[in-house]
């Protein structure tokens, strides 16, 4: 029993070419029904005998895993975090697929179907892991991820020098719900911006956060808001703040690196 899956055209063309190559090899091996040949025959043996017929050898799970390693090594894929070659194997690829499906909010049944599981038990582990991961981000982790994630796309700015820094108007945002807005930076956009402030600002390339702005207070407010959302049973929704949290943490990190004090603002 095989599971039918839709394919994008680019992948389908490659697999069709592979099928044609396998058929040629199946004929050469004397296989009576080339349509029954494995799509990815074993490379260690040309053919094997089953009953009265000859068929192409089936690959083992170990040989498939080794092929994945060879492909990744040949492509020279490197980690953005370490700069070293990524250690990819079949199990890791499978776990990554399951985790990404859980992060996208897929159900137990959908994850089980994606991974071709006959039971839902394995799929539950991916969702439980994802929920734990989504609830765990804090200030320390945000500061650690900030320089690697590169979510902050703007440039730091100094107050009182708007014209030389291409600043059109100032951005005001509250560090906590219920508090009054404070001046956190400048904006280089001409005209009205309908995106939510300050959440959308920290990941915007037109945002110029002040070097002495209340960014630590904003970061604490974002983390507190995220915790409340996760505790209310909405971890997937809470995770929508992650890019902003990491971008804000990068602003804090860059300001601290310059040794400049932040404005005194309540963090509640």
UniProtKB/TrEMBL annotation:
The keyword Transcription does not apply. The keyword Electron transport does not apply. GO terms for molecular function: DNA binding. One of its GO terms (biological process) is DNA recombination. Gene3D superfamilies: Intergrase catalytic core (1.10.443.10). Keywords: DNA recombination. This is Tyr recombinase domain-containing protein.
């Amino acid at each position: 029993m095989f599971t039918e899956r839709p394919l994008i055209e680019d992948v389908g063309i490659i697999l069709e070419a592979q099928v044609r190559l396998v058929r040629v090899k199946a004929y050469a091996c004397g296989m009576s029904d080339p349509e029954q040949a494995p799509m990815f025959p074993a490379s260690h043996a040309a053919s094997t005998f089953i009953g009265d017929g000859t068929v192409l050898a089936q690959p083992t799970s170990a040989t498939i895993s080794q092929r994945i390693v060879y492909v990744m090594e040949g492509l020279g894929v490197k980690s953005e975090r370490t700069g070293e070659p990524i250690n990819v194997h079949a199990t890791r690829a499978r776990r990554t697929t399951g985790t990404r499906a859980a992060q996208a909010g897929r159900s137990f049944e959908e994850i089980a179907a994606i991974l071709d599981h006959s039971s839902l038990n394995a799929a539950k582990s991916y969702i439980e892991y994802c929920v734990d991961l989504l609830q765990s981000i804090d200030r320390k982790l945000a500061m650690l991820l900030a320089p690697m994630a590169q979510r902050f796309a703007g440039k730091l700015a100094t107050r009182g020098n708007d014209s030389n820094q291409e600043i059109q108007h100032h951005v005001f945002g509250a560090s906590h719900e219920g508090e009054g807005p404070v001046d956190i930076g400048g904006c280089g956009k001409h005209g009205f911006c309908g995106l939510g402030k300050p959440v959308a600002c920290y990941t915007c390339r037109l945002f110029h956060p002040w070097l002495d702005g209340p960014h630590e207070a904003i970061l604490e407010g974002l983390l507190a808001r995220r915790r409340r959302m996760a505790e209310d049973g909405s971890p997937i929704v809470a995770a929508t703040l992650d890019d902003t949290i990491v971008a804000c943490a990068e602003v804090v990190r860059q300001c601290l690196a310059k040794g400049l004090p932040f404005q005194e603002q309540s963090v509640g």
